[in-house]
């Protein structure tokens, strides 16, 4: 499988949205589309997405008429693109409006995408993630980083331009690169993987090692540094796996696997509360007795672990997950 296909299997990656980049400069076309009855607007409020349903969630999509009471729709709606025959925009409702959730009927509520992702279809999840990420960028860039003057949205919401005549600096949406890596090694013909946990995570939750890429650093150097900082393990070979947009609030996760060149763990920088080497058998056993939890199945962390686990002889990781932790996306069946 090539990298494009592998990344396409990650949750929050859309396989069907055309971003319509050539339409972005056409302000008149954009105004008409916002007002078009067929257009659908993805609302975001306090970084949350509007959803309806219980076990299987669906996004609630609005029209311009639904949003007439809110100021600045035309000025600040962001063109997301087209999916099938529908054009989509994102719009952030003012955080100070307390009554926003009351307006959209029974059964619908603004919810945290990171938590409810597993209950959504993958294309819906991707559209909501895109809306959440781009509206977050607008909120954080209301002022010019060069001169401090207010900025305003332009290019269908894909740039912000400084309003100071002497500056006019154009600001582009940013995404923060973060690496995540599953480190493995072989001992007595048995493979082990390195999992760690942060103290704030739910009890028993362990995951791959992750951290932000620093300025002046290659992705591979970030992998080596993060693993060393957090566990004191020396990393040998590094292999790229796939990437995943992670708008919580503004990252792209760059997934790697790596081979360890040492085995003794020291929790060096205090970020992890525990880290250990796990064989596939130990993972199965710890999942069964409840002492280990793995990352949510919408995360690339889960996919790195799953791809490694499933190449062994213990079957599929998905079949060893305890029941009662909610329905999940079956990546392999997509
Ligand atoms: Zn400026």
What would your notes on this structure say?
With 334 residues, the chain is of the alpha+beta class. The chain folds into 2 domains: 3-140, Alpha-Beta Complex (Nucleoside Triphosphate Pyrophosphohydrolase), CATH 3.90.79; 176-333, Alpha-Beta Complex (Nucleoside Triphosphate Pyrophosphohydrolase), CATH 3.90.79.10. It is 22% helix and 28% strand. The chain has 8 helices and 15 strands. The strands form 3 sheets. Strands 1, 2, 3, 4, 5 and 6 form a 6-stranded mixed β-sheet that branches. It is globular. The model is unreliable at 325-334 (pLDDT under 50). Zinc ion binds at residues 144, 146-147, 149, 162, 164, 167, 169.
CATH architecture of the largest domain: Alpha-Beta Complex
- Total tally of structural domains: 2
* CATH topology tier name of the largest domain: Nucleoside Triphosphate Pyrophosphohydrolase
**Attached small molecules:** zinc ion
**Averaged pLDDT:** 93
Radius of gyration equals 22 Å
Number of strands: 15
Encode the helix/strand succession as letters: HHEEEHEEEHHEEEEEEHEEEHH
In CATH, what is the class of the largest domain? Answer: Alpha Beta
Unreliable spans are 325-334
Main β sheet profile = 6 strands, mixed
CATH superfamily of the largest domain: Nucleoside Triphosphate Pyrophosphohydrolase
Number of helices: 8
The secondary-structure class comes to: alpha+beta
Describe the secondary-structure layout:
Blueprint: H1 3-8, H2 27-35, E1 40-45, E2 48-52, E3 58-59, H3 73-76, E4 78-83, E5 86-92, E6 108-111, H4 113-116, H5 122-140, E7 151-154, E8 159-162, E9 170-171, E10 176-187, E11 190-197, E12 209-212, H6 219-231, E13 235-246, E14 251-260, E15 274-279, H7 280-288, H8 300-309
Parallel strand pairs: 1-5, 10-14
Antiparallel strand pairs: 1-2, 2-3, 2-6, 4-5, 7-8, 8-9, 10-11, 10-12, 11-15, 13-14
Zinc ion binds next to loops.
């Amino acid at each position: 499988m090539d990298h494009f296909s592998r990344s396409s299997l990650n949750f929050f990656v859309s396989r069907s949205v055309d971003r319509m980049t050539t339409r972005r400069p056409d302000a008149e076309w954009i105004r008409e589309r916002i007002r078009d009855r067929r257009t659908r607007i993805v609302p975001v409020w306090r970084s949350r997405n509007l959803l309806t349903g219980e076990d299987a969630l669906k996004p609630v999509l609005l029209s311009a008429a639904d949003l007439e009471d809110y100021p600045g729709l035309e000025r600040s709606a962001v063109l997301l693109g087209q999916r099938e025959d529908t054009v989509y925009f994102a719009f952030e409702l003012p955080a100070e409006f307390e009554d926003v959730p009351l307006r959209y009927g029974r059964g619908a509520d603004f919810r945290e995408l990171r938590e409810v992702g597993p209950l959504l279809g993958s294309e819906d999840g991707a559209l909501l993630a895109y809306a959440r990420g781009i509206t977050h960028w607008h909120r954080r860039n209301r002022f010019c980083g060069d001169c401090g003057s207010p900025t305003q949205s332009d290019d269908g919401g894909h740039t912000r331009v400084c309003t100071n005549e002497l500056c006019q600096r154009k600001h582009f949406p940013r995404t923060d690169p973060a690496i995540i890596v599953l480190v493995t090694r072989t001992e007595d013909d048995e493979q082990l993987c390195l999992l760690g946990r942060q103290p704030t995570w739910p009890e028993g939750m362990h995951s791959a090692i992750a951290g932000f890429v620093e300025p002046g650093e290659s992705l591979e150097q970030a992998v080596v540094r993060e693993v060393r900082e957090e566990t004191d393990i020396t990393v040998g070979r590094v292999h790229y796996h796939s990437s995943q947009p992670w708008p919580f609030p503004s990252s792209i996760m760059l997934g790697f696997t790596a081979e360890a060149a040492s085995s003794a763990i020291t929790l060096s920088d205090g970020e992890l509360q525990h880290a250990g080497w796990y064989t596939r058998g130990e993972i199965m056993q710890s999942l069964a007795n409840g002492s280990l939890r793995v990352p949510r199945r919408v995360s690339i962390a889960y996919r790195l672990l799953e791809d490694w686990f499933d190449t062994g002889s213990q079957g599929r990781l998905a079949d060893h997950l305890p029941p009662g932790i909610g329905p999940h996306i079956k990546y392999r069946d997509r």
